[in-house]
Amino acid sequence: MSAKPIFLDKKYTVVGDAVLNAAATLSTVAVGHPKSIRVKNRVLSQAFKRLDIAKPPHHDSHVLAEMYEGLVGFAYLDLGISFESLTSNLLEQIKNGHKEEEVYTEFLKTLFEEVKRKV
């Protein structure tokens, strides 16, 4: 039996999902195109795969997306990374002109580096 990754803990995935979607929505306001955003699991799982952070063969896209959200939730709840910091990071990627897939890959890369420094 394998251990369940901390990032799949429900408290982290639920909070991470809410924080990520809220940050994405607020970033659309900042760039002048306000709309409600629900970041797609496909986009989040692809970001994990691109960065080679987690590539276990038995994890489907949904699980990888939950791990992404869990990392955001862990950073927010346990490491004290502020919502403003997360939103600013996401907005910076959008303003750099990245496509959606690249935005969330670069956001994850930056967040993962910050988490590694704090853990």
From TrEMBL:
Q: Which Gene3D superfamilies match?
A: Ribonuclease III
* UniProt GO MF annotations: ribonuclease III activity
Q: Which residues form the signal peptide?
A: none
The record's annotation in InterPro entries points to: Ribo_III_sf_archaeal (IPR038133), Ribonuclease_III_archaeal (IPR021568), RNase_III_sf (IPR036389)
Q: Which residues form a coiled coil?
A: none
Protein's GO biological process: RNA processing
* Name by which UniProt lists this protein: RNase III domain-containing protein
Q: Which organism is it from?
A: Candidatus Marsarchaeota G2 archaeon OSP_D
